[in-house]
Please model this.
Amino acid sequence: MFFSKLMPHDGNFFELFNQHANSIVEASESFLKFVEHYNDEALRAKYTQEVDKAEHACDDVVKEVHRRLHKTFITPIDRDQIFSLINTMDDVADLLQNGTEAMHLYDVKQTTPEMLQMAELCN
Model:
């Protein structure tokens, strides 16, 4: 009983999940604007930076979740589930960033209505 008071409980993981989800929403909104305004190079660069910024915010949350997992003795749900959930959420942000990078890398000249429709589904 005495030791349980010394061990950290509940690392407030749900708050971190919400922060990560908000960053994913920011990334997906910026990705949609990126596709919508793809022909304008200045806006394309702006929205690429916004997607990158949101993805980096997601990475920071993932690092914090991992740090708290190592420090927290009793977690609100199973450790493996927390680890799996945050990593899967981070995959979403990574894929949005990869989409902007791939369009630059392959020197896409213009978007199609199908690309816009797919970007809208991400949002």
